[in-house]
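stage 2 :: seqdesign
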């Protein structure tokens, strides 16, 4: 029986929400791992690995980058899925996805997606609120997380 690891880093909770949603769509045992809380993971215990992070100022979290760097060769041997959560959609969102992860992992992944973003103003500090209003022109809570993209992503992972 295969086992899935969903490892993620989340700043305000959107990436974690997507990780939990994905875990509910898997047809096998799943372990969730917040990379901000747990640094050591035995990758040998998993056949399939999903990595997720959110994009801030055009970059994915340091914890995701470090995890990829430390485990790159092992990750390439696994059935791999990669995702980001970010405000940018279309070409810009795809560009962010393609620069968030090392090229070797992008090449090795079975599926890679941008699930969208969720903004909850009350979870942000003063500077983040100012930035989001200026850059994204968002004044209130907002979500464009795509359930259908989550479903398609899960389907690919389940079929391998």
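stage 2 :: out
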């Amino acid at each position: 029986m295969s086992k899935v690891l969903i490892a993620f880093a989340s700043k305000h909770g959107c990436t974690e929400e997507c990780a939990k949603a994905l875990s509910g769509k898997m047809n096998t045992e799943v372990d969730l791992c917040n990379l901000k809380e747990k640094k050591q993971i035995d990758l040998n215990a998993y056949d399939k690995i999903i990595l997720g992070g959110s994009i801030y100022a055009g970059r994915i979290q340091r914890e995701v980058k470090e995890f990829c760097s430390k485990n790159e060769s092992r990750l390439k041997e696994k059935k791999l899925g990669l995702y980001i959560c970010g405000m940018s959609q279309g070409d810009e969102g795809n560009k962010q996805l393609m620069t968030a992860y090392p090229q070797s992992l992008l090449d090795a992944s079975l599926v890679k997606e941008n699930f969208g973003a969720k903004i909850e103003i009350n979870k942000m500090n003063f500077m983040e609120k100012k930035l989001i209003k200026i850059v994204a022109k968002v004044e209130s809570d907002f979500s464009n997380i795509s359930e259908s993209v989550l479903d398609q992503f899960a389907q690919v992972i389940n079929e391998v």
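stage 3 :: structure notes
- Helices lie at 14-25, 62-76, 90-100, 103-108, 126-136, 147-159.
- Residues 130 and 139 are 9 Å apart (CA to CA).
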